[in-house]
Amino acid sequence: MRKVEIYDTTLRDGSQAEDIAFSVEDKLRITEKLDELGVHYIEGGWPGSNPKDADYFKKSKKLKLKNSVVAAFGSTHRPKHKAKDDANIKALIASETPVITIFGKTWDFHIKEVLKITPSENLEIIHNSVAYLKKYADKVFFDAEHFFDGYKDNPSLALKCLIAAQDAGADFLVLCDTNGGTMPDEMQRIVAGVIKKTKAPIGIHTHNDSECAVANSIIAVELGASQVQGTINGIGERCGNANLCSVIPNLNLKLGIKCITDAQMKRLRDVSRFVNEISNMRHFKRQPFVGDSAFAHKGGVHVSAVMKRPETYEHIKPELVGNSHRVLISDLAGKSNILRKAKEFNIHIEPDSPQLQDILNRLKDLEHQGFQFEGAEASFELLLKKALGLHRKFFDLIGFRVIVEKRKEGEIPLTEATIMVRVGGKTEHTAATGCGPVNALDNALRSALDKFYPELKNIKLHDYKVRVLTAGRGTSARVRVLAESGDEKTRWSTVGVSENIIEASWQALVDSIEYKLLKEEEE
């Protein structure tokens, strides 16, 4: 079976993305996750560029990696310097990694305008750098920077750069689409030409500035490239790198190239989310293969078909990449959507039950008012249980009042909420302050219910979003509030809609508390 190696550069190229800054500890944790995923090489950073990367290479030696090899990254030696005297080359050797990757110029524009040397001098730099590093590393990979731009301008010179690295003993010649502007037809023509004229194995390193990074990587592999470089979730400079969360399953499942094992591929979604969390980035719902929406179905016709045969609207089994089916509830929903969601909630509804049509009608009416249940499944579960008589009220609201007071310019407003509720035959009247009216109301409600339901102390409000639904009405517009709450075990989302933002927030808060209490009873 043909072998293709995965070279991950999340820790180096990925860290160059805007808004991303990995600590040494972050990089070590991601290294362990990438090892679990089974990538062959992990590019840890550029030891000659900053103390943090040098520290990473020192500490990474203590990691007990089972599948991956850590690689150090750097450049060829500087013009007018010998390889043995170059500070960058010395730092690469000092990292003591078994693999060293260096990049060199292959575009005559860069050679003349950036390095300001002759093409023959550049060829000598490439050869000498690779040959010298081969004395200290098990493998040396040559990243041909700007190769495709260079090839398009001067194919003869670009190929000579590759041959210089090959003759010096480079273990891989990695073709880099550094500016990310190469089109798939160009990729096909150039890679095919290179493979005919080189002997060393070929790798591919693409950027996504033209939204072609994954496609170009796959094309290069189909033509014979046996190493793919990329990052988890495609993070990287400018528009990012080839997304390994798409490259890997495409190779494994579509081309039949097992670059990692089936068991390792089931970790793909977990690794994707882990890297996002460490990067402090939101998960991209629509990301192929690993996104929340990748196997989510909303249209009633789709759901009906998927319930019978998933492959009708899914190109792979989601479990293969650690993902799962999801059915979304909206005004596009049919009875199949509701039956599927009810099954997820362990609620039994007969397909011919008249209650099913009532629920569907109620759902569409609420969505018309502005409610959104695809992002608030806890509220939808409560809606189902209320319709089927499976819900009970845990408290009744007698009334609440929220006061916001600003006493002088420059002072933070004071917010206080008072609330009166009835639980059983007892009435509770409390007040609380907060950072704004919604927080004050949330605090007052919990304070009123604490003595009756102490388990509510574990709830935290993790996220709160407000969206204006009726444009053009200014401050009198209807708004939708989505609240994400959670305890030490799980999280859930609820929704409220009103022209009054406090009322909409109240609806979402009450649903959140009732959901928690219902789940506690079920346990």
Characterise the protein shown here.
The protein is of the alpha/beta class. The chain folds into three domains: 5-279, Aldolase class I (TIM Barrel), CATH 3.20.20.70; 296-368, no CATH class; 396-522, Alpha-isopropylmalate synthase LeuA, regulatory domain (Double Stranded RNA Binding Domain, 2-Layer Sandwich), CATH 3.30.160. 40% of the residues lie in helices and 20% in strands. The protein contains 18 helices and 16 strands. The strands form four sheets. Strands 1-2-3-4-5-6-7-8 form an eight-stranded parallel barrel, surrounded by nine helices. A hairpin with a 4-residue loop joins strand 15 and strand 16 (491-498). The longest helix is centred in the last third of the chain and has 22 residues, at 501-522. The chain is elongated.
* Adjacency order of strands in the biggest sheet: 1-2-3-4-5-6-7-8
Average pLDDT = 92
Query: What is the global morphology?
Result: elongated
**Quantity of strands, as a count:** 16
CATH architecture of the largest domain: Alpha-Beta Barrel
What is the radius of gyration? 29 Å
Taking the sheet with the most strands, its summary is: 8 strands, parallel, barrel
- The CATH class of the largest domain turns out to be Alpha Beta
Helix content: 25-40%
How are the SSEs ordered, and which strands pair?
Layout: E1 5-8, H1 24-37, E2 41-45, H2 51-60, E3 69-75, H3 87-94, E4 99-105, H4 108-115, H5 119-133, E5 139-145, H6 147-153, H7 155-167, E6 172-177, H8 184-197, E7 202-206, H9 213-223, E8 227-230, H10 244-254, H11 262-265, H12 268-279, E9 296-297, H13 300-308, E10 326-327, H14 335-344, H15 354-369, H16 377-387, E11 396-405, E12 414-423, E13 426-433, H17 437-449, E14 460-468, E15 479-486, E16 491-498, H18 501-522
Parallel strand pairs: 1-2, 1-8, 2-3, 3-4, 4-5, 5-6, 6-7, 7-8, 9-10
Antiparallel strand pairs: 11-12, 12-13, 14-15, 15-16
Helix pairs in contact: 1-2, 1-12, 5-7, 6-7, 8-9, 9-10, 13-14, 16-18, 17-18
